[in-house]
Amino acid sequence: MYRLICQRGHARRGEFDTPHGKVQTPVFMNVGTQGAIKGALSARDLKEIGCQIELSNTYHLHVRPGDRLIRDMGGLHKFMTWNGPILTDSGGFQVFSLAELRRIREEGVSFHSHIDGAKIFMGPEESMRIQSNLGSDIAMAFDECVKIPSPYDYVRRSCERTTRWLIRCRDALEEFNSEPDAVNPGQMLWGINQGAVFHDLRIAHMQEIAALDLPGYAIGGLAVGESHQEMYDTIEAVEAYMPKDKPRYLMGVGTPGNILESVARGVDFFDCVMPARNGRHGHLFTWGGIINIKNEKYARDEQPIDPACNCPVCRRYSRAYLRHLFKAEEMLAMRLAVGHNLYFYNSLMQKIRDALDDGRFDSFRRDYTEILDKRV
Amino acid sequence: MYRLICQRGHARRGEFDTPHGKVQTPVFMNVGTQGAIKGALSARDLKEIGCQIELSNTYHLHVRPGDRLIRDMGGLHKFMTWNGPILTDSGGFQVFSLAELRRIREEGVSFHSHIDGAKIFMGPEESMRIQSNLGSDIAMAFDECVKIPSPYDYVRRSCERTTRWLIRCRDALEEFNSEPDAVNPGQMLWGINQGAVFHDLRIAHMQEIAALDLPGYAIGGLAVGESHQEMYDTIEAVEAYMPKDKPRYLMGVGTPGNILESVARGVDFFDCVMPARNGRHGHLFTWGGIINIKNEKYARDEQPIDPACNCPVCRRYSRAYLRHLFKAEEMLAMRLAVGHNLYFYNSLMQKIRDALDDGRFDSFRRDYTEILDKRV
Question: I need a surface site. Which of A75, B175, B321, B359 has the fewest CB within 10 A?
Answer without folding.
Answer: B359
